[in-house]
Design a protein that fits this description.
The complex is a heterodimer of chains A (323) and B (264). Chain A is mostly helical and 323 residues long. Chain A is 76% helix and 0% strand. Chain A is built from 15 helices and no strands. In chain B, 30% of the residues lie in helices and 26% in strands. The chains are: A mainly alpha (323), B alpha/beta (264). At the A-B interface, helix 10 and helix 11 of A face helix 2 and strand 7 of B. Chain A: One of its GO terms (cellular component) is plasma membrane.
Chain lengths: 323, 264
Amino acid sequence: MVFIANISLGSISIPTKAILDSFIGTQDNISWQHIIMDYRLPKAITAIIVGSGLGISGLLMQTLFRNPLAGPFVLGITSGASLGVAIVIMGASIFGGVLLGILASKWSIVIAATLGSFLVLLTVLIVSSKVRDTMAILIIGLMFASISAAAVNVLSYFSSAEELQQFFFWGFGSLGNLSWDEILVLAALYILGLLLSVISIKTLNSLLLGENYAKSLGINIKQSRLLIIIATSLLAGSITAFAGPIAFIGLAIPHITRQVFNTSNHKVLLPAVFLFGAIIILVCDSIAQLPNSEYTLPINAITSLIGAPIVIWLLVRKRKMMF
Amino acid sequence: MTKEEKHIVLKTENLTIGYSSKKEENIIASNINIELHKGELIGLIGANGIGKSTLLRTLTSVQSKLSGNIFINEKDLNTYTNLDLAKSLSLVLTESLPSKNFTVFELVALGRQPYTNWLGNLSESDIQIINKAIFQINIEDLKNKKCFELSDGQLQKVMIARALAQDTDLIILDEPTTHLDMYHKAYILKLLQQLAKDTKKTILFSSHEIDLAIQLCDKLVVMTEDNVVSDQPCNLISKGTFQNLFPKDLITFDENSGSFRVKK
């Protein structure tokens, strides 16, 4: 329902029946057909992937690190991606104009973001394989995030206003502008990450007892930890590459779900986070469209504007944080 | 004694425990030879820092031994996979749980993880075993309560039920009586004695409750600076082992009452 409403709302309002007609190909109004199939439907599908994927990777990180403040980005994925994008957008003027030719293409940003997050993540993984303590991985991830943020700052300092603007626009996050080809690639990575998360459900539940208990229940800690980290990287990494750094969803959705369902059992939480993530981001996106107006607000602003009060309200109402 | 009761569940041969780094080996205790039989309740006692935790961590394969051999059910500990070990050995630790948002039933059910499928679904027989464990520990009234609502004593019982549901021959508990009042200390240890007798499981626990352990255990493992001895409590008393447990300047062991006295 939210899905249909999301497609229906935009600078031109399209009635529900017309949307269904478009899906089954009996739509007479060609411009509506075009708007829906080439613009709104891809955007709604992207939204679902982004919302559920970030929610689930947030849940994985919070359980793995047994820390309610963890989110999908504690492993340095976003900062790596933004470093990659910053180098492509702003580095060109510093490293000479050779790169300028490929800058225009959208894929170059996607590839830069992917490479950036992959490299930072790889470094975090290599360093963290040397430490036995899971908490140390958290700190290492945050440290690498700071390093990349610093590099981005240095780059910004030497950049022109236009380049800065372009970079900031990427930083707002965007669900639209994805072609069907791009969605296909994103969906493939997303489904792989989702499968790995489902395989990890049993491990995640035992991790709630702490690593020593999990180990005594026959869980191979190092191997499962790697599996969970790879799942998160696939989900959060691909989403950040295609939609930019979408804030807040990854941190907030697991909390909202835990408060509503009042359980820590991942067999319930995983599907519930999937649903909540998808629904909330569709709602946020519908609002960001500012229905019947020409303006579209940055999705990042809306997720935080709507999500933060929900989390605060739930915490105050229940007076107790569920974890 | 019948043959079944002589069955050796845990055995160590010339075991040396401690920590090793690239530079040097830090030996905590050596020449440890203990044999634990089926259905026995065994207390592990010794002063703070003597290496009780190190011994338990080594026996449970959390930490590697320096030398010697450990056999569980006559099979070398090194040859166990994580999963096989989980079916032979269950733990109750002192660390607090990161999440307490489970019901008691859910927490006990986690003990069945080594036996459940990849998704962790419980079968009919799993549910029966869980309910039986809850019944044996006498926590049926707590079954649907959340763990954060429980007192320390109740939570300790739930953790023991979880270990019981794991259905292993050997249960090892690390200081199960810390944070508990005198009544609950006695209650938990009495419960362990009952369990060892009824379920024929071998239960090893470390504790500072020497008086209680002397009264309730079938066997004690006593760690001192010089050696590690294991025997029945009355034999240990007559051998005077407890006299050497602590420095003699403050407390002495009274052999008649089987407890320690402060020097007046």
